[in-house]
Amino acid sequence: MKKKASPDSKDLRPEYGAELFSHMKGNRFAGLELHFKGRRPVYLDEDVAEVFDTPEAVNTVLRSAIRAMRTAGVITSSKSARAKRRAS
After folding, report:
1. What is the mean pLDDT for each group of 10 consecutive residues in the chain (88 residues)?
2. How many CB atoms within 10 Å of residue 86?
3. Around 5, how many Cα atoms within 13 Å sit in the side-chain half-sphere?
4. How far apart are CA 83 and CA 88, in angstroms?
């Protein structure tokens, strides 16, 4: 177990001013669970993120792609896929 330094120790560092930290970026993960509130975070590559302004724009494009894939028969819903597996 580490020995705690006493408050009157002479080897304590001096207090740092705020100007030393003004150039630093904040922690990008701080408060992440508060921001998403139960939603799963998805991280886009930079070139993809440049195209979309808002999360709603990303969702709109993804939903239309899902609809097109379902129409083409590329993907099936998870319920029908489970039913097919059980039948075989």
Report:
1. 58 70 76 66 89 90 94 71 63
2. 7
3. 7
4. 9
pLDDT at site 40: 77
Residue 86 corresponds to which tokens in the numbers above?
């059980």
Q: Phi/psi of residue 49, each to 5°?
A: -65, -25
- pLDDT of res. 60: 95
Tokens (6 digits) for 80: 């029908």
Gap between the Cα atoms of 80 and 84, Å rounded: 6
Closest by CA position to 57, among listed 68, 70, 44: 44
**In this structure, what token pair is assigned to residue 17?**
């001013």
Assign 42 to helix, strand or coil.
coil
Dihedral of alpha carbons 49, 22, 24, 5, sign: negative
